[in-house]
Specification:
Number of strands: 4
Shape: elongated
Number of helices: 2
Strand content: 25-35%
Largest sheet: 4 strands, antiparallel
Radius of gyration: 18 Å
Distance between the termini: 46 Å
Order of helices and strands: HEEEEH
Structural class: alpha+beta
Low-confidence stretches: none
Length: 112
């Protein structure tokens, strides 16, 4: 079952989420799970669970062993992370849009 994602407007995006949209996530390993053992009792696949220390986004990377190839990747976003479309001509926002918003917020702080 897929969880319903609520989208917010760019101006209502929380600062910690805006930072990740601008600069990328600050991933930290939290644990390994779903370890798949082969017949020779060697690990053939496992899933790394990572979490962003800023916004708490969770990322699950399933890795093949011994090649260390990425088999699949899944993200579990925190509520309020995703932004409504609203860029030029209704397109999704790009990094430049997020940086503009961050700059506008900084200008308000500078003026205060």
């Amino acid at each position: 079952m897929t969880k319903k994602v609520t989208r917010v407007t760019l101006v209502n995006l929380m600062d910690k989420f805006l930072d990740c949209h601008c600069f990328g996530h600050n991933w930290r390993w939290t644990k390994d799970k779903d370890i798949l053992w082969g017949r020779s009792k060697a690990v053939v696949q496992y899933t790394e669970v990572l979490r962003c220390s800023r916004c708490t986004m969770k990322r699950l990377d399933t890795i093949a062993v011994p090649s260390m190839d990425l088999v699949k990747r899944h993200y579990d976003p925190p509520e309020g992370y995703y932004v409504e479309r609203g860029g030029e001509e209704g397109r999704p926002h790009n990094r430049r849009d997020f940086k503009r918003e961050a700059f506008a917020r900084r200008q308000k702080r500078w003026a205060a």
